[in-house]
Amino acid sequence: MLLEQTWRWFGPEDRVTLRDAREAGAVGIVTALHEIPAGETWPVEAIQKRQNVVRAAGLEWTVVESLEVTERIKMRAPGWERDVESFAQSIRNLATCGIRTVAYNWMPLFSWMRTHLHEPAPKGGYTTRFDAVAFAAFDLCMLKREGAEAEWGEVASRAAHDYFKRLSSAEADTLCETILHGLPGGHRRLTIEETAEMLKAYAGISGEELRGSLGEFLVRVCPVAEECGVRLCIHPDDPPRPLLGLPRIVSTAGDLRWILNQYSGDANSLTFCTGALGIRADNDLRAMVREFASRIEFLHLRSTEREQNAGMKMESFFEAAHLEGDTDLIGIMIEVIGEKRRRELSGDARSLPFRADHGQELLNDCERGAAPGYPAVGRLRGLAELRGAFTMAERWMTKVEQHAEFPQ
C-alpha cells in the first residue's frame, strides 16, 4: 500500500499554486469544482478540464474534497431526493474520469468553524483559532438566537457579553464576517438574516433525526459508489460539538461506529481528521485509528491545542504545528503503518492518501494572501514533518517486528 502525499488546492484562483504543491513533495491533488453550486451535478467535461490542468503541472487529481451535501438532504426538505440523485450522478461521473476517493461532511449550516484567522502562534507565525467566548458573543449579541442564553448558561453568557462590550466596531465586524462568510471548501456566504432563516428551517431537528437523514443518504448513494469503485469518506465535525443549537453527529468514536454500521461495504468509509477529532479530550485518537483502520480511506493529519475557558461548554483551541499540540501524531502514524502492513499482506495495493491538513502562516506566507488555514510554507513544513515521521515509524516497526515485539 502506498501512503500517497497529497495537497489541497482550491483551483486556478488559489494563491498557492500547483507548482508549489509539487515542490513541497505532493504527488496527488485534493480539490473540487467549487464553482458548481451545491446540489448540481458535476459534468464529465468539467471534471476532465480540471484534471488536465492538474496533469499539466505533473500531478494527478486523486481525491475530491468536498462534494457538498445540501442542507435539503440533511433536513430531508423538499427537493432532497433530487439533490441525492445529483450527488450520485456526480459520483458516476468522477468514476468515469478515474477519481475514486470522495470526501464529504455532514455538518449542518456551517462547515469547519473558526473565530480568528490570523492569530499569533506561540512560536512565531500566525494560525487559525476558535475562541468559544467569541463564538458565544456572536451567538448572543449579534445573531441574538432565541434560547441561546439558556444553552450557554449564566457564566458563559456573562463572559460573552463582557467580551462583546470590549470589541471595537471593526473587531466586531471582523468576527461576524469570519463566522458568516465561510471558510475554504464551502459554497456559501451568509448574512445574519439568512443564518437566522436557516436556523428556523432546522428548528426542532434532533440528533436522531439528523442521523436518520444520514442513514437514508448512505443507503441511497453507497450502492452507486460501490458499483463505481468509489470510496465515500465522511469528515468529522470541526469543532466536534453542537453549534448554534444544531446537533453534530460525526464527533466521537460512537458516532463513527454508527455511521459505518449503516452500510458495511467499502464505499462507506472515513476521512480521519486528527485535528477535528483531537479537539475533544475524550476522543482517544490512537485507539480510534486502531479500531477503524480498515475503513479509513483518507487521512487529514494535523494537531490542535486546547485552551482553558472556565464555565464554557465547548473548547477553545488553535491550530498547532503538526507535531505539537494535543494530538499524538507519532502514535497515530505507527497505527497507520500497522494498517499499511496488514493491507500489503492481504494483497490490497490501493493507495491511502494523506495530507498535511491546515498549516500555520510562516515566513512570507502572509504576503501571498492564501486561503485561511492553507498557506504554502506552513503546509510545506507540515508535509515534510509528516513524511519524515512516517519514514521513522516504518523503520521502527520493522525493527520491532524483527524482535518479535509489537507497539503498545
UniProtKB/TrEMBL annotation:
Required cofactor(s): Fe(2+); Mn(2+)
Keywords: Iron, Lyase, Manganese
Catalytic activity field: D-mannonate = 2-dehydro-3-deoxy-D-gluconate + H2O
Single GO molecular function: manganese ion binding
UniProt cross-references to SUPFAM superfamilies, sorted A to Z: Xylose isomerase-like
Gene3D superfamilies: Divalent-metal-dependent TIM barrel enzymes
Pathway involvement of the protein, from the record: Carbohydrate metabolism; pentose and glucuronate interconversion
Keyword Nucleus: no
UniProt-listed Enzyme Commission number(s): 4.2.1.8
Role: Catalyzes the dehydration of D-mannonate.
Record-stated family: Belongs to the mannonate dehydratase family.
Protein name: Mannonate dehydratase
Native source organism of the sequence: Granulicella mallensis (strain ATCC BAA-1857 / DSM 23137 / MP5ACTX8)
Gene: uxuA
